[in-house]
Amino acid sequence: MASADGASTFAKGLRVLACFGAGSRGLTMADIARQTGFDRASARRLCLTLIEEGYLRKDGRVLELTPKILSVSAGYLMAHEIGRVVQPILNLFAERLDGEIALAVRDDDSALYVAQSATASARVSIGFTAGSRLPLWPTAIGRMLLARSPDDIVAKLLEQAPLRRFTETTETAPGALRQAIETARRDGHAFVSGEFERGAAGLAVPVGRIGGASAALGTTASVNRLAPREARDRALDILRQAAIALGREPGLG
What we know:
The protein is of the alpha+beta class. The chain folds into two domains: 8-65, Arc Repressor Mutant, subunit A, CATH 1.10.10; 72-247, GAF domain (Beta-Lactamase). The chain is built from ten helices and eight strands. The chain has helices spanning 8-18, 29-36, 40-52, 70-79, 82-97, 140-147, 151-160, 174-187, 223-226, 229-247; strands spanning 56-59, 62-65, 100-107, 110-118, 133-135, 190-193, 200-210, 213-222. α2 (29-36) crosses α3. Mean pLDDT is 88; it is low at 1-6.
C-alpha cells in the first residue's frame, strides 16, 4: 500500500504488474480485479494505462506482459554485475554441483531469485529462474535469509505470514520454525527436505550483501540425492566455495 505521501495510482499499477509474478502467462481483467481486490472499473483503467505504456498487451480477453517489463529490472542487474560477474560464478559452481544453484535476497515475505544456473541434469521441476519468488518458511534458501534477518523482522513475518502447508511434511508450528531458523543461524547453513515440494530437498548458505540486502546461495536436488551425509557435505562445501568466490567481488561481499 502507498503511504500518505506516496502516489496511490502508481502503487496500484505496480500491484497489477505483480499479479503476473507467479509466472502467469495470461490473465483477464476479472482475474486481476480478484487478485488485487480492486473493483473491475479501477482494474480496467489501470490495465488500459499499462497497455498504453507498453508493459501489457491484450489478446482477446487475455492480458500478457511484454518484453518491455525487462527494462525495469535491467538497471538492478547491471548495477550489481549480475550478468558480467555473478552469472559466470554460478555457472561454474552449478557444473561442480552437477545441478542447480541460485542466488536470492529477501523481498518482504519471499525469497527472490536474482540469478540462477542449472546443468542439463539438474532437478528443476518447477523451472525457477531469476525473478522467481519462493516462500521463506518451507525452503532452505528462505530459512537462510530469515536466519540473516533481525529477530524483530522474523517475529513480525511469523506473526503475519500465512503458514501454508505445501506437502504433508511442511512445518507450520511457529515454535519449530523459530528453532529451525536459530539452527540455520548457528550452523551457517540451512537444510530442508520435502517441505516445499514432495521429493525435493534444498541446501543454502549465507552470501554477503547485494545492494544493502542480505543474500543467500542455495541448491535444490532430489531428497535421495542429498540424503546421504557425504553427498550433503560435498554440496555444502561447493556452496561455501561459491559464496567465497562471490564475496571476493566488489559490491557483492
